[in-house]
Design brief:
The structure is a single chain. The protein has 134 residues and is mainly alpha-helical. It has one domain: Globins (Globin-like, Orthogonal Bundle), CATH 1.10.490.10. Helix content is 70%, strand content 0%. The chain contains nine helices and no strands. It is globular. The protein starts with a helix and ends with a helix. The relative contact order is 0.16.
């Protein structure tokens, strides 16, 4: 996202608009819970291995910084290098669409405001589509 621009323009960042770390944490927890529960996300879930604890933690850290908040992920691992880090996993249109649907459902269930959801979904789509490798 371009929340660095928001910081300099005086506009609230997505991190602030969403409600900070507590809401991002709830969003990530719901995202992975849905992935585990909903049959419609089976291919996405299969790509994550048996234990989701590390994925939950890393996505939480990443989203905090990506939305303009604390750079927890970068402090621990350096630049995210999203495409390179995800290259070992099959990411096609099906996986992209399941990730986006799961995140969209999670945002709805944790009551992310509609205007922010729309903005985030557009950014998520661009990133998820760029991550495709099959």
């Amino acid at each position: 996202m371009s929340d660095a621009d928001d910081e300099h323009s005086g506009q609230a960042t997505a991190f602030e608009l969403i409600g900070g770390e507590p809401v991002i944490h709830a969003l990530v927890e719901r995202f992975y819970d849905l992935m585990d529960l909903e049959p419609g996300y089976a291919e996405l879930r299969a790509a994550h291995g048996s234990d989701l604890a590390s994925a939950r933690e890393k996505l939480h850290w990443f989203l905090c910084g990506w939305m303009g908040g604390p750079q927890h992920y970068v402090e621990r691992f350096g630049h995210p290098r999203l495409r390179a880090r995800h290259m070992p996993f099959k990411i096609g249109i099906l996986e992209r669409d399941q990730w986006l649907a799961c995140m969209g459902q999670a945002m709805g269930e944790v009551a992310v405001p509609q205007d922010l959801r729309t903005r985030l979904q557009a950014s998520f789509f661009q990133t998820a589509d760029w991550m495709r490798n099959v």
